[in-house]
User: What shape does this take?
Amino acid sequence: MSTINIQEALDNLGQQVSKIAEENRVFKLHEESLQKFVQNLGDYISPEDWGMIYNTIDDIFIKEVMKDWGSNLFPKDFKF
Assistant: This one.
């Protein structure tokens, strides 16, 4: 490999790393915002409604998010 080819490869790699770093930063911002949103729902949704929503959802990922980020929103005796 010539010096020019190595430099091009390093430049391309640097661009890809920068792109991935920016995507990761945006993802973390979205995740933090969604987590705060779920936590704030407790001001508007009763524990019984939160449990009813959980039981009517089929998407396992959403159920996991509800349990992880909104565990405090479930009724005290809720059975998963």
